[in-house]
Write a structure and sequence with these properties.
By secondary structure, the protein is α+β, with helices and mostly antiparallel strands. The protein has 16 helices and twelve strands. The strands form four sheets. Strands 10-11-3-12 form a four-stranded antiparallel β-sheet.
Length: 419
């Protein structure tokens, strides 16, 4: 009954019918409807699916509002959305404007108190978070920072161990009471103001690049940690973090940690989420096709001049996209040939494009068509053919008799001419 459908769809129908307790007759109706929609969703051989995908993605993108920043859910983390976010995803920008993470916890660390403890471990703490005031001494070339000792205790940082965390080159760090004194080793050409900025930005504790952490309760009474900033590799190493569900909004980080297939899924998820957040509907197959194209080479490539469009085999296709002069000159110098396999280059050359009916060549032998004749006409034609056959031998005999007579006349004429 369901042999025409793929295995996954069949399994989903079976699971749905079991959950709902649907009987065989109603199940048959459901299967027939699914088959109908499945056939409707299939495309014809050599249909221009790439062009349709490009149109289907670009048209809704023009309708996106300029509300590009939004507090994601109840977490209160401000993230980039709308057209700028879509451009980030498809142009394969290595660092998004507002990187963020959604960190899930395992069942053992699912309580609020343990979630807050893990959040404290994750949040990056810099030296400036503990400094109450700082003084630059231009005579002695020192920077003195007055520290908040109570806050240091909250983060389990000892004042005596603080100099070990300050890892800057060519400086001496010393802790005296509630003060941290920094002195450069070389007194020549020292800019204390720049040094002070580097000092305050020094990483002390937590995971680098994660500036804000918010613990919130999601559906199903589950505590989830949302962050501003991302560092997937380090976060997954923290005890209590669910490594199977924790994710970030940067496909490149996911590619480095989990591989290209996970990065492809991330591109689809981020793109579909951005489009749906704006209240627009795009078939996921168009997005997945573009994600497949972006990751088909084993790495993430953007769709611009330095990505997919700039790496096409066809010189004419690259030339038609951007940087016309550059591509045509380099092709002429290198003696490159264009196979003319795509639609863009064939349109430029005014040829039939290899799509739709233009993708096929018909080769065959036309059969002989026998025309049926009425019986009277058929008898007449048979009689005519017999008469023709009877006449042919008579003509041949007459021709044979005429030939020797003509030959004798020719000989006589030739003898007269000689005389």
């Amino acid at each position: 009954m369901m042999t025409d459908l793929p295995l996954k769809i069949r399994e989903e129908i079976d699971e749905y019918c079991k959950k709902k307790g649907i009987e065989s007759e109603k199940k048959h109706e459901i299967v027939e409807k699914v088959k109908h929609f499945y056939r409707m969703s299939m495309y014809d051989p050599e249909e221009a699916v790439g062009v349709v995908s490009a149109q289907s993605l670009s048209e809704p993108a023009t309708q996106m509002t300029m509300r590009t920043y939004h507090f994601a859910g109840t977490a209160g983390i401000q993230v980039t959305l709308g057209l700028p976010r879509l451009a980030e995803i498809f142009d394969a920008k290595k660092e998004p404007e507002t990187p963020s993470m959604t960190i899930y916890l395992d069942p053992e660390h699912g309580s609020e108190t343990k979630a807050i403890e893990i959040a404290k471990k994750i949040k990056e703490v810099k030296l400036k978070d503990f400094v109450l005031s700082n003084v630059i001494d231009l005579i002695n070339l020192t920077i003195t920072c007055h520290m908040d000792v109570e806050k240091l205790k909250k983060f389990d940082v000892d004042m005596k161990d603080l100099p070990k965390h300050v890892k800057l080159k060519n400086i001496d760090v010393e802790a005296k009471g509630k003060e941290l004194i920094i002195m450069p080793k070389k007194a020549d050409n020292v800019n204390l103001h720049k040094l002070k900025y580097k000092l305050l930005e020094t990483h002390i504790k937590g995971v680098k690049n994660i500036s804000h952490v918010i613990v919130s309760k999601e559906e199903g009474d589950e505590w989830v940690i949302s962050t501003l900033g991302s560092n997937l590799h380090k976060v997954l190493a923290i005890e209590g973090v669910d490594t199977t569900r924790t994710t970030c909004n940067n496909p490149f980080e996911i590619y480095d940690v989990f591989g290209v297939e996970a990065a492809r899924n991330s591109i689809i998820k981020e793109a579909v989420g951005t489009i749906e957040e704006q209240g627009l509907g795009v078939d996921i197959r168009y997005v997945s096709m573009l994600a497949d194209l972006m990751t088909s080479g084993g790495k993430i490539m953007g769709i611009g001049r330095y990505g997919i469009a700039g790496n096409k085999d066809s010189v004419l296709a690259r030339m038609a996209f951007e940087e016309t002069k550059k591509h045509i000159i380099s092709a002429a110098i290198e003696g490159m040939r264009d196979p003319l396999k795509g639609h863009v280059e064939n349109i430029i050359m005014n040829q039939v494009i290899p799509m739709g009916t233009g993708a096929f060549t018909l080769v065959g032998r036309m059969p002989e068509v026998k025309v049926e004749q009425p019986e009277d006409e058929a008898e007449e034609t048979k009689a005519e053919k017999k008469e023709e056959k009877a006449e042919k031998p008579v003509k041949k005999k007459a021709e044979k008799e005429e030939k020797p007579a003509k030959a004798k006349e020719k000989k006589k004429a030739a003898a007269k001419k000689k005389k």
